[in-house]
Specification:
By secondary structure, the protein is of the alpha/beta class. It is 46% helix and 16% strand. Helix 5 runs parallel beside helix 9.
Length: 237
Amino acid sequence: MRQAVVIPAFNEEKTISKVISSLQRLNAFDIIVVDDGSTDKTREEVKKFPKVTLLSLTVNLGAWKAMQTGIRYCHSLGYKRVITFDADGQHLPATLTMLIEHQTKTNCDVVVGSCTQRGSLARHIAWRFFRLLSGIKIFDITSGLRVYNAEAIDVLSGKEATLLEYQDVGVLLMLKNHGLTFTELKVPMKPREDGISRIFHSWWAVAYYMAHTSLLCISKIKKQHNLILMNKQKYNA
């Protein structure tokens, strides 16, 4: 099966080489780095690895759109499995085998690598709030460590997914609405080696994220409710 690890990277010059080296030791995946308009030497560091594909964005588009760029690239080349992986050193390559085995065992379209021990109070408040609002039974709802199969890759490569700003709740809601299934597996993670969380680095950022994602959840719930009403009307006509 053709499979790839997609790594979105923004100003990760201090960690990206170490992350790539650790993944290459597995010798099991193609590695694709999407440079999200970095202003440091991230691109130069990636170019030191000739077997790694580097996709360079001319402007910073944010984590999800950088991620989607890599997923679309894989979709265009017929990859059957994509693993999304952070560039900051939090994710451990040794967990990829565990996640893939779990996907094979459960036959789910998506497996989320879950580590609920990490994170600030703000992150835990957001997790709890969006689990209740969305009805999605994933505890580590913001984890960027995920395994997508071909069906999920196809959905996430579409135009509708381009409207999303974050990779977490919106992506899972979209997959749910398309009838795809997901599960999570507890895995160890390391503390971030450098940089800050794009979502949870300040209370203002958390407030924006929660307001944006709440509106997204409400719109999806309303859309689903309207579809149910339309189907009932057609049935009763």
